[in-house]
Design a protein that fits this description.
The protein has 283 residues and is of the alpha/beta class. The strands form three sheets. Strands 1-11-8-7-5-6 form a six-stranded parallel beta sheet. The longest helix has 21 residues. It is globular, with a radius of gyration of 19 Å.
Length: 283
Amino acid sequence: MAKLIDGKTISTQIKDEVKAETEKLKEKGIKVSLAVIQVGNDPASSVYVRNKKKACEYCGIESLSYELPESTTEEELLKLIRDLNDNPECNGILVQLPLPKSINEEKILDEISPLKDVDGFHPVNVGALSIGKPGFVSCTPAGVIELIKRSGYSIEGKECVVIGRSNIVGKPMAMLLLRENGTVTVTHSRTKDLKEVTKRADILVVAIGKPKMIDASYVKEGAVVIDVGIHRNEDNKLCGDVDFESAEPHCSAITPVPGGVGPMTIAMLMKNCLESVKLQNRV
């Protein structure tokens, strides 16, 4: 039976570490703050924003909330971001996606100062990751690395396969695994003989975006399997990209959905907020 990698417990450990550090900074008169911008009232976005605010409160990070109407123009949003870039009281800026169709997401994300880009999406931070320089790393892949390492598994020298090549998960995930000295293969929808590739993986990270696609036939015996996907099945229950019941007996360790990767994303966001103070040369 596979070991369940508990994202809830590990995310709480990280938030507790962030909380301890923010308390030390407060003793020096330095506060950590995060601006959270939501345009419109998409229900899923509202849940995510609420969870981020709760995490900020838990960690002692001040949350600056900007809840803007659906009618907000691109120029109005750009102006707000420029103002926050210039505001020394704001350390991190997070724009909740998706944005209304009338607003160019790429243009908005590129406007955020790389020093305040706690989501790790800015081209400057993506470039820094690719050449091993300091910068913010996208929260979900950074959380996956913490899950693996804090569960007692070494990445160094292991055959690592990533299913998915998105800018938010797949590509940064591959670079982070490389940084940990893994031997990395990135697969995607056009990969030939996908099962043959994935069955070589000591560590398999699945971010394909298709519910329960990856079953036991894709998994090497004894592999560590990390499921980044999250979906609602026909019974309205949460499930991942991995068919858990099929794959679990063949793994040495696996993340559940929910309770695996999900909680780590917000925990790493909190860690990035703390890092923003250091990157802005305030400590």
